[in-house]
Structure formats: C-alpha cells, structure tokens
Design brief:
Length: 158
C-alpha cells in the first residue's frame, strides 16, 4: 500500500501524486453533485429531472470509488472548502431567481459540465506520467467522457 503522505527534509508532509489526483477529482465530482442537488428542486421538466438524477447516480458511484481509493491510501476524502461551496450555492440561487426555465438550467449545467471537463483534462495532463496514478487517471478520463455525454443530453433542453 502506498502511503498518502511522505515527510520532506524540512518536516512537511507531501501527498503522493495519486492521492493528490484523487483528492482533486473528489472535489470536482462533489461540486457537480452538489450543484445538481441544489438545482433539482427548481426543475419542472420530467425528462430533465430524469437526466439530472442519472447524473447524481454517476457522481455518487464515482465519488465512492475515489473515496475508497483515498481510504486505501491512508487519506481522507475532502470536499471543496465551505466558502467555495457556499459561493456556488449562492450563484445557483441568484441565477435561478429570475430565470428558472429548463433552458436556463440546462445552460447552467452545461457550463458546469464544461468546467468539470476542463478540470479533469487538466488533471490528466498534470498526472499522466506520475507512477501510481493510473486508476485515478482512468476515473478522470471517464468523468470527462461522462460530462461530454451529459452536455449532449442537456442540449435538447436549450
């Protein structure tokens, strides 16, 4: 078992690349899940609700896989800091206060999925040559592919 941290010469703990990748992935996945949780009550279209619920299932499964990986490597799964999550929630409230149509919510979700793809791709490039990252790189690539497919589904609600 690879340890989550290593102590540097100056006594600082440094995460292994695999744990660092998994930690960032977990934050990315939980932000997507959190956004859907807060948007779902505002959605009136049953087809869109079904699509969003399916996304929640994917996020929960992926988050569980990453969380298990982190636990196996002696690390703790942590979400984004509270202030980041609150800012996201406030953005959702503000964005839907004046326009809670299916089209606008689809646009918001597409923007969020695009950010998730960008982050997952950035993580893949950053960790692609790091030993021990293969499993989490696969999760990152699958996340990017899932988000792209989700965008395609959401386009029908624009």
């Amino acid at each position: 078992m690879e340890t989550a941290t290593k102590v540097s010469a100056v006594g600082e703990e440094k995460k292994s690349p695999a744990v660092e990748l998994a930690t960032e992935l977990y934050k990315n996945i939980t932000m997507g899940s959190d956004a859907i949780i807060h948007l779902l009550p505002k959605v009136k279209d049953n087809g869109m609700k079904t699509s969003m619920t399916a996304s929640m299932c994917y996020y929960e499964k992926a988050a569980g896989k990453v969380k298990a990986f982190l636990k196996e490597h002696g690390a703790e799964a942590k979400e984004e800091p509270l202030m980041t999550r609150m800012a996201s929630r406030m953005g959702i409230v503000m964005n839907t206060a004046l326009d809670a149509t299916s089209s606008h919510i689809a646009q918001m979700l597409i923007e969020g999925s695009t950010m998730a793809i960008t982050e997952a791709t950035r993580l893949c490039h950053r960790f692609e040559r790091q030993a021990g990252c293969e499993e989490m790189l696969t999760v990152a690539k699958e996340l990017a592919e899932f988000e792209q497919a989700h965008i395609e589904k959401l386009k029908s609600f624009l």
